[in-house]
């Protein structure tokens, strides 16, 4: 079946370009549902590097179909397609878990299209998490040789088009438009990490009195953790994220994708940072605990990072909780 992935992409593509009325009334959407079910049965072999090209072609067709048809569907048709969209996003999250590097590149390529879909479904947490967890932000001043390259290879003086904007845009935390507001800083093309650190400290002070304000900044905090090369920024942003999740544990699932990407990072300091907080995070996100522990174990096996201590501490903490 894995050898038939290119044919599946062709079959899907032949149906995705049809008019919205035809797509919704002649069971073509059902064909997409059945094909997605087949892909789900092929996990995790589906995400091997040798299959990435064919898999990306299939996922491309799904994104094109969502982008082309969702805007023109009636409300009851959108509700029906929501199930397909949720299953598709779950598959993409599994892609991120099993092959983070390839998945991140694919999500970055389709960021604009996914934001269009997010505009139709602004409360879809799985999509918000995916966009926030794979954000591309330039947190370095111009001329810094360590600054990450823009996701776009197009030449030009500005890289603003390559900067991922958070889906939600809640109000600031009371700085009255201060230049050190975290959101306004991340909205710039380039920014000094020291400014980010100062803004995080301001947010830390405000949240000590009003912790619920952190929930409005979860997307920005995830972006700092995932993209900043300043470990002080990463550490403080991660601590604020945990504080926000403690205040509202229901939001823990929104950081699963980002946490897994941190574990898969090539940066040893970032991996050690998130492993140090593994016990605390697993307790807050217990429904994902087995997956998080398994990934931490894989990190210990495949790298020279010692994950045995945080895994042991996590299990002890869970045993204490349940007696």
Automatic annotation (TrEMBL):
PANTHER family: INTEGRATOR COMPLEX SUBUNIT 1 (PTHR21224:SF1). GO terms for biological process: U2 snRNA 3'-end processing. Pfam families: INT1_R3, INTS1_R4. It comes from Amblyomma cajennense (Cayenne tick). This is Putative integrator complex subunit 1. Residues 144-170 have a biased composition (Low complexity). Residues 143-180 are annotated as: Disordered. Residues 192-286 form the Integrator complex subunit 1 R4 domain. Residues 1-122 form the Integrator complex subunit 1 R3 domain. One of its GO terms (cellular component) is integrator complex.
